[in-house]
Each structure stands twice: as structure tokens, then as C-alpha cells.
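Sanity check record (used in CI):
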Amino acid sequence: MWQQHLDKLTLAAVLLLAALLLALQLGDVKSWAAIDWLDILGEGIVLAVALSWLTLNLLNRPAGRVTDWLYYGSLLLSCSFALDLLDEFLRYPAHVRTMSWLESVPAPLGMLALTYGLMGWHQEQRQINRQLRGRERFLRDHRLLDPLTQLYGLDYLYAVLNRELALHQQQRLPLSILMLDIDQFAAFNRQHGTAAGDNYLISLAELLSSQMRESDVICRYAGDRFVAVLVHTEQAAAEIIALHLQQQLQRLTAAGQTLHCSVACIQATQTQATAVLKQAELALRASKLRGARPVYQPGHGNL
Ligand SMILES: Nc1nc2c(ncn2[C@@H]2O[C@H](COP(=O)(O)OP(=O)(O)OP(=O)(O)O)[C@@H](O)[C@H]2O)c(=O)[nH]1
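Expected output for diguanylate cyclase:
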């Protein structure tokens, strides 16, 4: 998460360094006896807290307007508190007013920016809570479950995907889609019967539910095709999830065999669920072609 805020972290480091250099340039170092260590302890803690606000905000929040306000607020406060702390070690000549200006002005501005950011955060949280309540209503609606696998069906997938796409547009949060399809499942059914096929679908659904993250929404998209909506997930992270899933699928057997599944993941860029799913299907088709397996031969190991 911090990589997307690298420019902000660099700016903070540069400003704090500039404040230090300016203070050293303008002030004279106080004698050991003139230093008040209790003041230093108090002001040091205040600075450390402001810096922790700055970093916690950048480490935990996605890029956006609210994060920017919280960042600028805590940066101004950090600069002001850093100068306050330096004051304890340095004495400035009476005619130098720059440092007292620099110490006093950023603090109230920082407080204002931080307060504005917190108000934005409050609004954002209310919006998220509303969406979570809507999500929960869906979760409790059992008509939306596929009776065989107990995963969500197509209706739920469309509803969730459209809502996540709207959120993705508003808040610039990354969203990825993973699509999985069992290869040559029709041939497996013919060979071992639909009951064996059903058992495989149930085991696959259980594996998907246990291996994906809690925030991922897994749905049965078609007979032998599944879709996972990976919220707040960049394409690179989605690909790691897909790779991990492929490894776990090796352990899943049916009638003594390991069936091969094709997996594709895409970063959602369109605004409509239909378009996103079409894009995922194209990626899946390409993945199937890349990993094309020989035509199913009964009793010959992997599909
Ligand atoms: N056992 C079982 N089979 C199902 C179920 N739903 C769909 N199928 C079967 O899944 C098969 C899907 O066939 P295709 O779409 O041709 O897929 P495939 O045979 O895996 O072919 P490729 O995907 O191209 O490798 C069909 O034979 C369906 O009958 C189900 O609930 N249970």
C-alpha cells in the first residue's frame, strides 16, 4: 500500500529535513545546562504521535481526497512539532522571526486540514456502512444460492458486481475478477456419470470457499464455470491468488483423477457487469488455448 504514497512520504522527509537544516542555519546550539529534558520528552512524544498519524494514514488508506487531507494535516502538524522540539536545543537571535512564524502558523492550518479530512472520513464511513448493510441483506437471501454448490448464483453475481463497479468508479479502489472453468467436464460426466460430476462440483466449491479470502465473493457462473469478485485487489495480487488456487486444485480428485481447470483473472475496467464478464470470458478462452490439454481419455490421469 505504501508504494502508491511514495511521493507523499518523500515530501514529508524532505520538509522535515529542510526544517532541521533551516533551524541549524539560523540558531545556536544551547549549552547542556540550558536544555530542559522534560520539555523535550513531552514535545518528542507529541511529534512521534503526529508522525505516526501521518504514516498510519498512508499505510492503511487508499489514495484519494480524504487521505490527502489527512496527510497534509498531519504533515503540517509534524513540521510544527518538529520545529518546536528543535527549539529546545537551539537558541535563535531575537531579530530572527522566521522560526517563530514557522512554528506557529502550520499547527492551526494542520488542525483545520486534519479536521476536514476527518469529516470526509466520517462521510465515507457512512457510505461504506450503507453498502455493507445492503451486502448483508443479499447474504441472508437464500434464494440467491445455487442449490448444488451452495455458492451464489448469477443474479447475485450481477448485483454484487454492478455495485462493486460503481464503488470502484467512485473511490478508485482496484477490483479484479477471477474466472475458472473445468476443462472437458462433459467428457468426465459421460465417463463417470453426473453424480461423480456433481461431487466434483461440490468439492470444487468447497475448495474455492476455503481458499479465497473472506472479502472475495464466489459465484457459480454457469454449469462448470465459477467467478470470484476480488474486491480491493490489483491485477498482480489477483494473479498470485490464481496461481495459489491452481496449486490447490492439484489436490482435488474425482473418481481417482485430477481434473484440469483453466483460470483467468482480469482487472475490471468497464462500468457494466456484462462487459466485465465478457472480458473475463475472453481471458479465460485465451487461458484455455494456452494450456490446452489433450482430448480426455478415460482413466488416463489428468484432464
Ligand atoms: N454433473 C454435472 N454436470 C454439469 C452440471 N452443470 C453443467 N454440467 C455439465 O458440464 C458440461 C459443460 O460442458 P462444456 O461447456 O462443453 O465444457 P467442457 O466439456 O468442460 O469443455 P471445455 O470447457 O471446452 O473444456 C456439460 O456436459 C454439462 O452437462 C451439474 O450441475 N452437474
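The chain has two domains: 2-125, 141-290. If this sentence no longer matches the regenerated C-alpha cells, the check is flagged for review.
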